[in-house]
Design goal:
Shape: globular
Strand content: 5-15%
CATH architecture of the largest domain: Alpha-Beta Barrel
Number of domains: 2
Mean pLDDT: 93
Number of strands: 9
CATH class of the largest domain: Alpha Beta
Structural class: alpha/beta
Order of helices and strands: HEHEHEHEHEHEHEHEHHHHHEHH
């Protein structure tokens, strides 16, 4: 941990800085039964992010993520993916317009977020993870934009028709590059996203895909949840060239609180995870989601139990990555993200109620209040505005 001052007012100083900042988490996953009695975000429950925990931790806004896992590419599956996406859009809107409209509002502009913050109201923004939900029809971007989506990643785990993924599915391991980056459909998708004002997210993209997107786009882009390959050399992390490509567009790289992205994983832990996944027949995220009855809860309970036998990354590790990203890119191009409900969570920041601890570590390392406000949300709001300006012809 940074060398924190001994003065008695340190915690009060951190609290005030945190309260004045607009704290935005750019990636919070939601399940398909979100906004139901089973997963009610208005109640303090088992989810890492709910409205009470956001209040407790001073998390002012979150991009709730419309994620649909990759399956076989076919017209029938594209139709299913679209319907699944619409289910999550509806759930988010149910929270903001029916269930808790006085507590949290749907934000589609930077000004919406700022206004909600002034009025003491939380903000829900919408991001899409995996361009698989548009299949081979880039025009669907316009529909999703109208429903409130303000960023979309072109890929997730597995190749799709838009671009190469950083992480092909097991059956695709021999085909690590299908298009050599962006496909023709992917390039058209980027252009339409620029036209409507939706941020292009490079999360889960192959490096060449990142470089291609940076060359094609007319607007700033974002990495919604990445860490640095210079710390952990895995395909899911960004190397310096890819991060500088994001900066070239005047974009932002959000550093993620994800254990295995922040520090190398003990080989024994990797084997234990693989053995457990094999026992439950899990060879993809889709297979995990398909677990029936209590099997999913049993799997997660056993995985969490043995995960605790190995030290996890901490808030200090997260800020180590932030420090280096700021040194490489400058403070105007770096942010923070949890990936809660999607595997995120580290010692010291394991749910939204602990968000203040990240600000405390930033303060202890000497970051100014102005810089903390940029890192926690100001940079993302600036990107939102710049992308909207490009769409408006500015």
């Amino acid at each position: 941990m940074g060398d924190r001052p001994i003065e008695s007012d340190f915690e009060e100083k951190v609290r005030k800085i945190h309260e004045r900042a607009i704290v935005i988490d750019t990636h919070v996953d939601i399940p398909f039964n979100y906004a139901t009695d089973e997963v009610d975000p208005g109640r303090r429950g088992d989810q890492q992010v709910d409205l009470p925990k956001m209040r407790e931790g001073g998390m002012d806004a979150a991009f709730l993520v419309v994620f649909v896992p990759q399956t076989k590419r076919s017209p029938e599956n594209y139709a299913i993916a679209k319907e699944q996406a619409l289910t999550k859009f509806s759930a988010i809107r149910r929270v903001t317009s029916i269930l808790y409209p006085d507590e949290i509002g749907l934000a589609v502009t930077a000004d919406d977020v700022r206004r909600n913050h002034r009025n003491g109201k939380l903000s829900a923004l919408i991001g899409i993870e995996n361009g698989y939900v548009i299949g081979t029809d880039p025009e669907l971007v316009r529909l999703y934009y109208d429903l409130g989506a303000r960023y979309m990643s072109l890929t997730h785990n597995g190749q799709n028709d838009l671009a190469d993924s950083c992480c092909p599915l097991p059956g695709e391991r021999k085909v690590t590059s299908e298009f050599g980056g962006l496909s023709a459909i992917g390039e058209e998708t980027v252009k339409i996203m620029n036209d409507v004002g939706m941020i292009v997210d490079v999360a889960h993209a192959d490096k060449q895909t990142v470089l291609d997107i940076a060359d094609v786009t007319k607007a700033p882009i974002m990495s919604s949840h990445h860490a640095l390959r210079s710390f952990v050399d895995i395909r899911r992390n960004l190397d310096d060239e890819a991060m500088l490509a994001v900066k070239k567009t005047n974009g932002v790289v959000q550093i993620v609180a994800f254990d295995s992205y922040l520090k190398p994983v003990d080989p024994a832990k990797l084997k234990a995870r693989a053995d457990l996944a094999q026992e439950f027949g899990i060879d993809s995220f889709a297979a995990f989601l398909a677990l029936e009855g209590t099997r999913k809860d049993e799997y997660m309970a056993r995985r969490n139990a043995f995960d605790k036998t190995w030290p996890r990354a901490s808030v200090e590790t997260l800020v180590d990555h932030i420090d280096r990203a700021v040194k490489l890119l400058g403070v105007d191009h770096v942010g923070i993200v949890s990936d809660f409900e999607g595997g995120g969570g580290i010692e010291g920041w394991d749910d939204a109620s602990e968000t203040l601890s990240v600000t405390a570590e930033l303060v202890s390392r000497g970051y100014s209040e102005a810089d903390i406000r940029k890192i926690w949300g100001g940079n993302v709001l600036r990107v939102l505005e710049d992308v909207a300006a490009v769409a408006e012809g500015g």
